[in-house]
Design brief:
- By secondary structure, this protein is an alpha+beta fold.
- About 35% of the residues lie in helices and about 20% in strands.
- It is built from 15 helices and 21 strands.
- Helix 8 runs antiparallel to helix 9.
- The longest helix has 27 residues.
- It is globular and about 65 Å long.
- Keywords: Membrane, Oxidoreductase, Transmembrane, Transmembrane helix.
- Its cofactor is FAD.
- GO terms for molecular function: D-arabinono-1,4-lactone oxidase activity; FAD binding; galactonolactone dehydrogenase activity.
Length: about 600
């Protein structure tokens, strides 16, 4: 049986139901004043200006009452069982129980829909797609709702495979696994670790569904390791026009490389076969450096480490370097005693929080809040959110927070040992706006150094424009992808790509403040777009691209995408596999408009 999900705050239980506010009571007209006893009653009085005014006043009251009643009746739908009931003035109907508000994790994009389906097996998925195609009713595939741009959201309807989440087959010798596409990354890793295998690479978090993480071209880090879509050997696609088809490079190489990063527009990914690797323990080494030293060692860092990333701290010269490599079979894990305890590393951040909290309370004339959480129970990312929430757009305040972060990382240098799925994760902090771009960085043998030039220009731009840019700006690398829709696609086997993400946190639920942060973020993003994207051939991650509202800007984006990606081939495949566009949404239609001439 198809089940509609009871949504909360997001697809990760973060959805809200929004109920309309009750009407304010309508003020009834005051009673008419008594007739003047000194005045004689007359059956045909001559109208006076005052009586005309009274008449117009009461007519106005009557019209107002009727209008409000009609607005109440037509603005708020009754449930089905009340469809034939007579409307009553000044009563409002709550939103129907089947109307859900669906948002992404950061709460930056949301839609309301009555149609949110969760099939329990592939047969139900096939039936659902077939029936909706016959009705020409949209059901956009959506995963865990983690994409910052809400690429999977659609008001008309969505299908989610959270209940189609089994490990179907494990080939221990070939290190391959076949899974249903709704399985989450962490569930998959837990399900295959007993076979001594794991995924080749991971993104920062583990809650993505496999189908979603592949379709948007997600990635981890490591200049020798490709994006996650390259781990896909074959997959099943449930299409509106051709039913369920199995795609591999042996059967149909052109469609295989096109549909691996298909943005959910060519079919619903139902099953995926992945090439895995041997499960290994990794040693994570975190240390603080600067641009001068990084330039000297950049090629070595990229080539000699299986995984490497840089965390740039705006308004400082601090670059946090994080490398991860397999534990040596001969030497074992390094023996290292950290110089500072966790409390000592956090002390500078806690001191700044205590000082800033008192300062802003005095400025706002607010008393101490007894419900304020104990700062000694807060993690570093929690403290950073609290600090930024005090004044998120004050550049001087953000600089202080960034300097405190640099000090925290300086006192957090050291080693950590664990399995790859434990080590390669990264605490990204709270809700946030993100723009991540991908651009070529030469080859592993000959890095172009464009990746470091990009970062130097970006930091100079931030300082010149006095952008309240929080930390970190995360920089990662991957090898190329053969998937033609991947931002890291290339025909040259030894090409490498750098991925750089700028952010602004949303550390408050205050609507006005969130709007101000959003405006500032898009200003920040626009400046990077104008100054850097074309110069470095940078293109945004599909899960982080934002569609402009301005028509000219949209046309420019569409033209730019056509230069980098096979838009005609993609739209041709859409017309063949989904001619009624039931798997599409407004974002996909705007990025790749399907014209009659295609």
């Amino acid at each position: 049986m198809l089940r509609a999900l009871s949504l909360r705050r997001s697809l990760l239980h973060l959805h809200h139901h929004h109920h309309p506010k009750p009407f304010s009571p309508i003020t009834t007209p005051p009673p008419k004043p008594p007739l003047n006893p000194s005045r004689k009653f007359c059956t045909s009085p001559t109208p006076t200006p005052s009586t005309n005014s009274e008449v117009r006043k009461y007519i106005g009251y009557t019209v107002l009452v009727i209008f409000c009643g009609a607005a109440t009746y037509y603005s708020f739908p009754f449930p089905n069982n009340a469809k034939h009931k007579k409307a009553q003035f000044f009563r409002y109907a709550p939103l129907p129980e089947d109307l859900h508000t669906v948002s992404n994790w950061s709460g930056t994009h949301e839609v309301q829909t009555r149609n949110f389906y969760q099939p329990e097996n592939i047969e139900e998925l096939e039936k659902l797609v077939k029936e909706n195609n016959e009705k020409k009713a949209r059901i956009r595939p959506v995963g865990s709702g983690l994409s910052p741009n809400g690429i999977g959201l659609a008001r008309s309807g969505m299908v989610n495979l959270a209940l189609v989440d089994k490990v179907l087959e494990v080939d221990k010798e070939k290190r391959r696994v076949r899974v249903e596409a709704g399985i989450r990354v962490q569930e998959l890793v837990d399900g295959i670790k007993e076979y001594g295998i794991t995924l080749q690479n991971f993104a920062s978090i583990r809650e993505q569904q496999i189908g979603g993480i592949v379709q948007v071209g997600a990635h981890g880090t490591g200049a020798r390791l490709p994006p996650i879509d390259e781990q896909v050997i074959s997959f099943k696609l449930v299409t509106p026009a051709k039913g369920t088809i199995e795609i591999s490079k042996e059967k149909d190489p052109e469609l295989f490389y096109l549909a691996r990063v298909g943005l959910g527009g060519l079919g619903v990914v139902a099953e995926v076969t992945l090439q895995c690797v041997e499960r290994q323990e990794l040693v994570e080494h975190t240390f603080v450096s600067n641009m001068k030293d990084i330039k000297k060692n950049h090629k070595k860092l990229l080539s000699e480490n299986k995984h490497v990333k840089y965390l740039h701290i705006p308004y400082t010269d601090t670059i946090v370097v994080v490398t991860c490599n397999p534990v040596s079979k001969w030497k074992g894990p390094p023996k290292y005693k950290p110089k500072y305890t966790v409390d000592e590393a956090l002390q500078h951040v806690r001191d700044l929080y205590k000082e800033s909290l008192e300062k802003y309370r005095i400025a706002a004339a607010k008393p101490s809040d007894d419900n304020e959480p104990d700062m000694f129970e807060l993690s570093f990312t929690d403290l950073r959110d609290k600090l930024l929430a005090l004044d998120p757009l004050n550049k001087d305040h953000v600089v202080k927070v960034n300097c405190a972060e640099a000090e925290f990382w300086r006192k957090s240098e050291g080693y950590r040992v664990g399995w790859s799925d434990e080590i390669l994760g990264f605490d990204c902090g709270g809700q946030q706006w993100v723009s991540e771009t991908c651009f070529p960085a030469g080859t592993l043998a000959r890095p172009s150094m464009k990746d470091l030039e990009f970062m130097e220009e970006l930091k100079q731009l931030i300082e010149k424009e006095e952008i309240p840019a929080p930390a970190p700006i995360e920089q990662r690398w991957t090898a190329r992808s053969q998937s033609s829709m991947s931002p890291a696609s290339s025909s040259a086997e030894d090409d490498i790509f750098s991925w750089v993400g700028i952010i602004m946190y949303l550390p408050t639920m205050d609507a006005r403040q969130r709007k101000e942060i959003t405006d500032e973020f898009f200003h920040y993003r626009h400046l990077t777009q104008v100054e850097l994207w074309d110069k470095y051939s940078a293109y945004e991650h599909w899960a982080k691209i934002e569609v402009p509202k301005d028509k000219d800007e949209l046309a420019a984006l569409q033209a730019r995408l056509r230069k980098r990606f096979p838009g005609d081939a993609y739209n041709k495949a859409r017309k063949e596999l989904d001619p009624n566009r039931i798997l599409s949404n407004n974002m996909l239609e705007k990025l790749f408009p399907l014209l009659e001439t295609n």
